[in-house]
Design brief:
280 residues, alpha/beta, Rossmann fold, Hypothetical Protein Tm841, Chain: A,domain 3, 6-stranded mixed sheet, globular
């Protein structure tokens, strides 16, 4: 049985199963604070990021891992593995998939790069499903087919924590930001097929969360949802309250909260909250 290495990037939250798995590797995104460069999760923890964010007058920036960083990792993995399956955040939101694909052409080990079309824990969940398929004895071709199919089935609805940071990241025009601030409009961002879109514009935070739950109810009526992911920034108490609320509505579905990564919080804001699921 061939040995497969699993690679993802630091936008994926590694839970206990993934962080303790001997065949799972995470390549860090690059975060810039003014003139300083940090490796997400390596030289910059999530807690340190939030501390620096409060103290900095200049908004941080992010960059995908370089082709060279991938080549270095893949060459190292080639010493112990027969094949690499590399699953990364949406290619519409980052060049990480491109870096991995280019690196795969420069190394001697087979590398299969998967565009997850998602972010955060939904990306982690996809890696877990791939590992489950491997442990069930599926071929690598079948595993890749399963992952590509999953990439078309995820819904992510996010209530953006900071219009200012979304504007700085180039995802919202200055006029939209100004109108949103003046009218207290809360844009609900949907990530569908890997791209960002405004699913709804709601006047209050409370109404926006209720609207996201409405989207969930429609999805639940039309498909099978095996697990719900509540995504959050520093607003842990709000996330816990949302988890409790959803558990009351859906007692048969596992529901847990997961922090957004540093690279996502840079663009969305620290008080971002959202819900995600796979329609199966």
């Amino acid at each position: 049985m061939e040995k497969i290495a699993w690679v993802t990037d630091s936008t994926a939250y590694l839970d206990e199963m993934l962080s303790n798995h001997p065949d799972v590797y995470s390549i860090p995104m690059v975060v810039y604070f003014e003139e300083e460069e940090f490796l997400d999760g390596v030289t910059l923890s999530l807690e340190d990021f939030y501390t620096k964010l409060e103290a900095s007058n200049t908004p941080p920036k992010t960059s995908q891992p370089s082709v060279g960083a991938f080549v270095e990792l893949y060459n190292k993995l080639a010493e112990s593995y027969d094949r690499i399956i590399s699953v990364h955040l949406s290619s519409h939101l980052s060049g990480t998939v491109s870096s991995s694909t280019q690196a795969g052409e420069l190394v001697d080990i087979p590398v299969h790069t998967i565009d997850s079309k998602v972010i955060s824990f939904p990306l982690s969940a996809m890696v877990k499903r791939g590992i489950e398929a491997q442990e069930a004895g599926k071929s690598y071709e079948n595993i890749i087919e399963i992952l590509n199919d999953l990439s078309t089935k995820c819904d992510i609805y996010v209530l953006i924590g900071s219009l200012e940071q979304l504007h700085r990241s180039g995802r919202m025009s200055g006029v939209q930001k100004l109108l949103g601030s003046l009218l207290q409009i809360k844009p609900i961002i949907q990530i569908k097929d890997g791209t960002l879109d405004v699913a709804e514009k709601v006047r209050t935070h409370k109404k926006a969360l209720l609207k996201i739950v409405d989207f969930l109810e429609v999805a639940q009526a039309n498909s099978t949802i095996k697990e719900l992911f509540v995504l959050h920034g520093t607003n842990v108490e709000e996330a816990d309250a949302l988890v409790d609320n959803l558990r009351g509505k859906y007692p048969d579905i596992p529901i847990n909260r997961f922090p957004l990564s540093t690279a996502i919080a840079v663009h969305a804001g620290v008080n971002t909250i959202g819900i995600s699921w796979y329609n199966e």
